Amino acid sequence: MSDKLNPEFFFDASNGQLSLTEAETFTRNWVETGTITANDFRAFSVRASELNALLELVNSNGLDAVRFYFGMKPRPDGKFGLKPCLVMAGVQGFEVDFSNPNDPVVTNAGKEIYFPDRKSNVEGEFVYDFSYPCPSTCQNDSPLMDPPQPAAANSY
Q: What predicted TM-score, i.e. pTM, was given to this entire model?
């Protein structure tokens, strides 16, 4: 199998394609920012159509996994600063030993597979980000966004 896969399934991710260089910048931004707190973001939303497209690409090309990297990308509204994102790359050869179901062990990290340009199908190294950080794209009253504190233990 080629290290370049046909991303035709990503028809819905019109702005989700990233060059490998852009993705490297976003993931480096994440590492270098170093000041992310729970107030900045707590989760990501991904549209079902885009998630299904990603799974279809994985399944139809014999990939074993999808690797998600945390990143920080420029804000699309032109405001100063960066916003969190997930950079997604296909993985071939990812293996896990489940002989101890309570402590699975990754036995092969696999190799990342990059995609040609989605629009022109020109060879290149592209990955995807079609994630939406929460807060701002999630249900604010979800117990997962603001989990209740455990009840205090009685102290006698």
A: 0.73
